[in-house]
Amino acid sequence: MIILLKKKDSLTDQEFAKYLLEKHAPLAQKMPGLRKYVVNVVRRPPNREPDYDGVVELWFDDSDSMKKAFTSTEGQATQKDTESFTNKLTTLYIDEHTIV
């Protein structure tokens, strides 16, 4: 699963990154069945606003594990917290194919 995050307008880039890494990530990493969790903070491109401010990768063994994680108490808390620092999110369900 990949989630694209757009920060609330009231947050600076630095405030968004700090919240995502120091407050939100510790909540998310507690979700049961989570195998790997990667947080990517988007760098501002020259002369424009980025389309997204963060890209989060969540790795699970299978879709059932993912569903259980998000319906758990920890998953519910993580989803609720996302609303406190983002304006928009886009969720992508991914089947990875490693080529190299």
Question: Would you give an account of this structure?
Answer:
- By secondary structure, this protein is of the alpha+beta class.
- It has one domain (2-92): Alpha-Beta Plaits (2-Layer Sandwich), CATH 3.30.70.
- 35% of the residues lie in helices and 25% in strands.
- It contains three helices and four strands, in the order E-H-E-E-H-H-E.
- It has helices at 13-28, 63-71, 73-82; strands spanning 2-7, 36-41, 54-59, 86-92.
- The protein has a four-stranded antiparallel β-sheet with strand order 2-3-1-4, covered by helices on one side.
- Helix 2 crosses helix 3 (73-82).
- The two termini are 20 Å apart.
- The mean pLDDT is 96.
How would the blueprint of this fold be written?
Layout: E1 2-7, H1 13-28, E2 36-41, E3 54-59, H2 63-71, H3 73-82, E4 86-92
Antiparallel strand pairs: 1-3, 1-4, 2-3
Q: Report the span from N to C terminus.
A: 20 Å
Number of helices: 3
Q: Give the fraction of residues assigned to helices.
A: 25-40%
Q: What is CATH's topology name?
A: Alpha-Beta Plaits
Under the CATH scheme, which architecture would be assigned?
Answer: 2-Layer Sandwich
Mean pLDDT equals 96
* CATH class descriptor: Alpha Beta
Task: Please tell me how large the radius of gyration is.
Answer: 14 Å
Sheet with the most strands, sense and barrel status:
4 strands, antiparallel
What is the H/E string? EHEEHHE
Question: How would you briefly describe this protein structure?
Answer:
The protein has 100 residues and is of the alpha+beta class.
